[in-house]
Amino acid sequence: MKIAFFDLLQSEQRVFKIISANYDCVFNKSSLTKQIASTISDTQVLYIRSIAKLTKEILVELPQLEFITTRSTGFDHIDLEYCKKHKIVVSSVPTYATNAVAEHTFALLLGLSRKLLLCINQTKHGIVDAEKLRGFELKGKTLGVIGFGNIGSRVVEIARGFDMHILVTTKHPSTSRANKHRVQFVDLPTLLQKSDIVSLHVPLTDETKHMINQNNIHLFKKDSILINTSRGPVVDTDALILGLETGVLAGAGIDVLEDERVFKRKYRTLRNRSRFLLEHNNVIITPHNAYNTKEAYQTILNLSAENISAYIKGKPINRVL
User: Fold this and answer.
1) Quick check: 28 pLDDT over 90?
2) Catalytic residues, which ones?
3) 320 within some domain
4) Do both 114 and 154 map to the same domain?
């Protein structure tokens, strides 16, 4: 069996030591491209990260491919229709960064509520304006959580420590879950209208793309805050800018963007939309880094190795297809 790894650092290869000792493994630091795929057409197992776009054009170059494991919770970067048609099994690592992403959600929220960027900037310049630095407390505020999987549930648990009121919108509401987590399930319009802070924790699907859009941005409670640590396209960037420009949104904490090539461009080359978000005083943007903790990093490698081993044994785990 031939196994190809992509976007894998040399220091990470040790996790796959047992697998590489028994199978023909190819390790690559770079991302998989169509050109590279054509040179490894006999590959049966593929390991990738979410930065790799596994399109039909790439997959057709791998006629013997049987299994894909992606080093991510999301799998929207993989052409699942092609995989299904060609009986390619796909697995992910669904729970590796639950705490990491949930905690980063509150890092963004606290950064906005206590105006940390402005605090740091004023301190550096020796000019402190207490009135401009005045923030707000989370205690007693209503947090609207969209998506109630592992991460959304963990966000709710953390919010309890801040003594916040919680509303939840989810595709699968249930009375037992509502009682267990002491939350109220509501529809999306109600959540937007009543929440002081809205936090997104849904996967990217056809249904969730532009879930926050120009048709519902006006429903947000005035001076509310939007936090997105899920997927960039869940929020229509034009709607986000509209909300900030009109004052509907008092701020936004963003770890993901519709076009994440922004994170690899020099500032002077950024287009107007990206410049607006980066220059806005009440917007904090981090470079898709919510998952990035020591603990989550080790877990993701271990789970990826387990996914491959389980497939080889004929008992695939963490399947998305």
Assistant:
1) yes
2) 231, 260, 288
3) no
4) yes
